């Protein structure tokens, strides 16, 4: 999932985002039960009443806001954003504490404006039976048995990307990885229909993405307003694909197929989760791939070992066939 990013330093901000959410819950619990004076809160500033430091964050690139806070207060600091007191973290140890060791005491929540933009029925905003059901449906679509159908198409997307770089002197790896992961996401979510509606989906998604971290003011002309309009249009495209599939009555191994097989899910729930998974999968994976490429380039011996292992496995596949 991605909240505050547009560069390959994204993992830090993803952790910020994840813990932004979890931190809110913890802080709210402390504030409501014990009173703020007894809290062992980290350093930081809470800004003005209610608005907190929201304007400081949105008056510049959010990455600048976080970086300057981080250098002033260290990897764990408190602030107040979008009406919520919160704790931001960026160290691997703190991330492990929140996401693994003590994940049972944290509950994921998002600011209301982000929920509205992604869709309130998306998996991230729920717990309990509905959450478990969605998790199973998502996992089912990403099991090796389901994914193996699309391996040749994923390979051709990768080859297409490689060829397109041949003509250029320099590329921005992270942006290229974002394009590549978006194409793979469309393929794994919509199968062949992803290609048919790809351009429309991309156009809307990019507008949505641009407004995602903007100030949540829903007035004509604002990035937020444009993003909300694009979000509605994305919903209409997904509805069109679902209607087409219902008419054709074919089974599909992709994520949309997995959701549609569950007869209890409403179309709105399916749409919110399809869009949610694009958000969850795209920048995270693009970021990880960017770092993989960097480390392969920086370590020629590892690159050689990976190349040999890839060559051997493709040779054995040819022999087996
Ligand atoms: C390197 C890439 C990725 C990273 C670093 C990453 C990281 C994360 C993290 C930290 C969470 C929050 C976990 C929690 O709250 O306990 C999460 C949730 C989630 N991610 Fe990823 N993710 C990645 C790729 C993907 C991909 C490719 C998909 C596509 C299926 C995906 C789908 C999801 C979903 C659906 C959730 C919500 C799970 C839930 O609420 O139960 N992620 N991801």
TrEMBL record:
Coiled coil: none annotated. Keywords: Iron, Membrane, Metal-binding, Transmembrane, Transmembrane helix. GO terms for molecular function: heme binding; iron ion binding; oxidoreductase activity, acting on paired donors, with incorporation or reduction of molecular oxygen, NAD(P)H as one donor, and incorporation of one atom of oxygen. The keyword Metal-binding applies. It comes from the Eukaryota. InterPro entries: Cyt_P450, Cyt_P450_sf. The chain crosses the membrane at residues 12-31. GO terms for biological process: abscisic acid metabolic process; sterol metabolic process. Belongs to the cytochrome P450 family. PANTHER family: ABSCISIC ACID 8'-HYDROXYLASE 1, CYTOCHROME P450 26. This is Uncharacterized protein. It comes from Linum tenue.
